[in-house]
Amino acid sequence: MNNAEVPIKKTGMHNLFFIACDPKLKGTVMSGKTVWKNPDGYLPGRMAPLMTFYVYMAIAYLLLSAIWFSQYMRFWEDILQLQHCIAAVVGLGLFEMILWYLDYSNFNKTGMRPVVTTAWVVTVGAIKKTLSRLLILSVSMGYGVVRPTLGGLTSKVLLIGATYFVASELLDITEHVGTINDVSGRARLFLGLPDAFLDAFLILWIFTSLSKTLEQLQAKRISVKLDIYRKFSNALAVAVIASVAWITYEIYFKATDPFNERWQSAWIITAFWDILSFALLCVICYLWAPSQSSQRYAYSEDVGEEFDDEEAQSLTRGQSNGDVSLVKQEQKNGNAAISDEEDESEEDKRE
C-alpha cells in the first residue's frame, strides 16, 4: 500500500479500519504503522490539556517552594527533622511537575515517547507520592512535634512505604510507559486495586495515630499543639471525604466510558489528585512553618505547663505588652499580699 494522508476536519473520536472483502484474502495478516497528529501536536486529545495543567502546577509549586525555602534558610539553625521532610516533598513536587511537562512537550513535538525518559518521570512521581503519604503518617504520629523519633514503628513505616512505592510504580508504568492507547477499556479499572488497598490501609493508620496524638496532647493540656493538630485533622478529613467522592466518580466515569467518548474531560481525573495533594501539602507547610522557636516548641511538653503557656503567647502573639505587664503587676501584688499575711501570722504567734 502506498502512503496515504487523511485530513480530518471534525473534532471527535476517530477510528481507522482495514477491511478486505476478497475471500481469497481470508487470514491475511497486515502490518504497518499509522501516525496521528492533532492541530497542536502529536499528543492525544485526552492528554493535551495536561501539558498546560502541568505548567500551572509547576508555577504553584515554585511559589510554594519560594515561600517555604525562604523561611527554611532564614531559620536554618532551628529546623526540625519533620521540616526537612516537608522541604524534600516540596522540592520533589516541583521537580515532578517540571518533568511531566517536559515529557508531554517532547511527546507533543516529536510523536515519540522514549521508555527510559517516561519511566524516570514515573519513578520520581512514585517517590514523591510515597514520601507524601509517609509524611502525613509521621505527622499524625506526632513525629518531630510530640515525639523526637518514631521508635519501634520506624521499620513498619518504612515497610509500608516500600510496598506502596512498588505498587504505585507498577501502576504508573502500566498507565504511562509504552504504547499510548486511547481505548483503555475496563481492564485498567482493576490495575489500581493494590494501590487503592494500600491507600485505604494508610488512611486507617493515619487516623488511628492522629486520634492517639490528640488524646495525648489533650491529656497533657498542651493547648497550642492541640489546636494545630485539630486543624490538621479537619483538613485531612476534608481531603479523605473528597478522595472517596472522587474515587466513586472515577469508577463510574471509566466504567461507563469504555471507548473514551468523553475524552475531552478525561484529563480532570488525573489533575484532581495533583491538586488535592498540593492543597494538603500547603496546609502542612502552613501549620509547621519554620520559626525561631521551632526547637523549643517541638519538645515543650518536657518542660511543663508553664513553658507551654509562655510558648502559646509567643507563637500566637495574642498578648500585648500591656497585658503582660498587668499580669506581672498582679503577680507582684499577689506576692506582696502573701508576705503581709505571713508577717501577721508571725505577730499572732509572738503574742
TrEMBL record:
It is a multi-pass membrane protein. One of its GO terms (cellular component) is Golgi apparatus. Residues 313-323 have a biased composition (Polar residues). It is found in: Membrane. Residues 310-351 are annotated as: Disordered. InterPro entries: GOST_TM (IPR053937), GPR107/GPR108-like (IPR009637). The chain crosses the membrane at residues 53-70, 82-102, 114-136, 148-167, 187-207, 228-247, 267-289. Keywords: Membrane, Signal, Transmembrane, Transmembrane helix. Residues 49-295 form the GOST seven transmembrane domain. Residues 339-351 have a biased composition (Acidic residues). PANTHER family: GH17801P (PTHR21229:SF1), LUNG SEVEN TRANSMEMBRANE RECEPTOR (PTHR21229). This is GOST seven transmembrane domain-containing protein. The lineage of its organism: Eukaryota, Viridiplantae, Streptophyta, Embryophyta, Tracheophyta.
